[in-house]
Amino acid sequence: MRKFRFRPVRLAFAAAIMLASPTMVPARAQENPGPASVADLAEGLLDAVVNISTSQSVGSGSTRPRMRAPEGSPFQDFFDEFFSERENQRPRNRRVSSLGSGFVINAEDGIIVTNNHVIEGADEIEVNFADGSTLDAELIGADPKTDLAVLKVEPVKTLTEVPFGDSDDMRIGDWVMAIGNPFGLGGTVTVGIISARGRDINAGPYDNFIQTDAAINRGNSGGPLFNMNGEVIGINTAIISPSGGSIGIGFAVPTELAVNVIDQLREFGETRRGWLGVRIQPVTEEIGESLGMDEAMGALVAGIIRGGPVDDGSIEVGDVIVSFDGKDIETMRDLPRVVAESPVGKAVDVVVIRDQERVTVKVTLGRLEDSEQLASADSDEGEATDVPASAEILGMSLAELDDEGRQEFAIADSVEGVIITEVDPDSAAAEKRIEAGDVIVEIAQEVVSTPEDVRTRIAALQEDGRRNALLMLANRTGELRFVTVRMD
Predict the structure, then answer these.
(1) Strands, E, within 355-407: which ranges?
(2) pLDDT, tens digit, for every residue of 287-301?
(3) Which fold has domain 274-368?
(4) What is the second-level CATH architecture of the domain 391-486?
(5) Active site residue 334
(6) Marked catalytic residue, from 147, 213, 319, 334
């Protein structure tokens, strides 16, 4: 074990830093050094935060094997009669309950916001207020994709409500306060800061969480995260915890996302999200380079949904969407969120990179139905045995897509291009998970139909000094994706 000795010179240097530090702190930090106490703030907010308890009936039929008496036992008739009666009885239902938090956003109408997972599947929902009173609640609407739900109670007295704030105004390091019902203890106040913004924890398609180190535990779900003005800027939803208790990593749905969902649930009882009708994938550095982009950004259109809003040719496969309705699309996951937040039927400007030029198209959004069926890849795998290869390019054996090839690899009639019959396991193509049965549809946004087309296109890219080739591939069912393959 190494030992460290602190020398006087180091202590003196540290003291000098401590003395000098006030002049180094940004002016804004000096003006707002953090709350000395949140007692006054908490006192005015505690009555608006509620505890939510739910119960549901769950069947508990027995699956234990039937007991039998030993062979020849004089008690055989007794055993048969007893267990026959038990088996004829209906399975008993048991009641299970859960606890969570919520908060009042409209005192007059009795509107309360919480998490969907707090009330999901509940037969009965009760709201417990800070003064000990309890009211039955009605579920107005819920949205599993953002884990939000709206409840309604019939107030018997004046309730306390809290306003929404603008989560966009919050910065990393700003003070926040959480109030909730951890472990069923009732109104509990914790304070911390915003640790990060825009977190994607794979909880849903629109993840954009606020991360905070304010203590959030089981039972805090659905409770509010306040700024220091007493405004709700997030709804506490999830924690990372190996033990089940707080380790200072909690997540809240920001109000910039939540308010629109809550308004729709209150008005319609469901969400009505905008829909563009495209399948997308990330723009990697290699893809950006192959498309001649100065910066890898945006969402690459890998497919157009048949019958969708842009099935009219306004947006094409291979386009890179870099702006939607005036909002920059920095990464692929930005696009679904901003589209979903847009009103159904709205006409918006979409900026795409097409043939290395910025093109603006006008698109009228459709509605994203919850029952929307997404195309999925066929899981059956096949290997080429009798299909002759007519070209060997970039570690891939290629052939024209004829009837024999379609049958061998079970490729749909709608798929057109050049079939890959074999892939060298040590090639750059294998690194990108290209496999036999994939079909090359385009190379660098130009259609190919023969192995010679592929060879010619690759040679042209190499002559232009390109290091990567952008391939648009179709699987057996016709689902498209883009990959880049090194040509060096």
Answers:
(1) 357-364, 366-368, 391-393, 396-400
(2) 888 788 888 899 999
(3) Pdz3 Domain (2.30.42)
(4) Roll (2.30)
(5) no
(6) 147
Query: Do the domains at 274-368 and 391-486 have one common CATH topology?
Result: yes
Rounded Cα–Cα distance for residues 408 and 388 (Å):
12
pLDDT tens for 206-224 read 889 999 999 998 889 999 9
Q: Are 330 and 200 in contact (CB under 8 A)?
A: no
147 is catalytic: yes
Residue 36 in this model has a pLDDT that exceeds 50: yes
pLDDT at 282 (0 to 100)? 87
Per-residue model confidence (pLDDT) at position 330: 92
Assigned architecture for domain 167-268: Beta Barrel (2.40)
> Encoding tokens for residue 209?
């969480």
Highest mean pLDDT among 19-33, 261-275, 276-290: 261-275
Q: Is 221 a catalytic residue?
A: yes
Please give the pLDDT value at position 73. Answer: 56
CB atoms within 10 A of CB 96: 13
Higher-pLDDT residue of 213, 369: 213
Return the HEC string of 79-147.
Answer: HHHHHHHHHHCCCCEEEEEEEEEEEEEECCCCEEEECHHHHCCCCEEEEECCCCCEEECEEEEEECCCC
Strands 468-474 and 439-443 come out as antiparallel
What residue ranges do the domains of the chain occupy? Answer: 167-268, 274-368, 391-486
Among residues 117, 213, 319, 453, the one annotated as catalytic is 117
Q: Which of 98, 167, 195, 221 is catalytic?
A: 221
Is the pLDDT reported for residue 9 higher than 50?
Answer: no
DSSP-assigned letter for residue 164: B
Closest listed residue to residue 365, CA positions, set 385, 338, 391, 387? 338
Which whole number is the average pLDDT over 238-253? 84
Q: Which of 141, 211, 202 is nearest to 171 (CA)?
A: 211
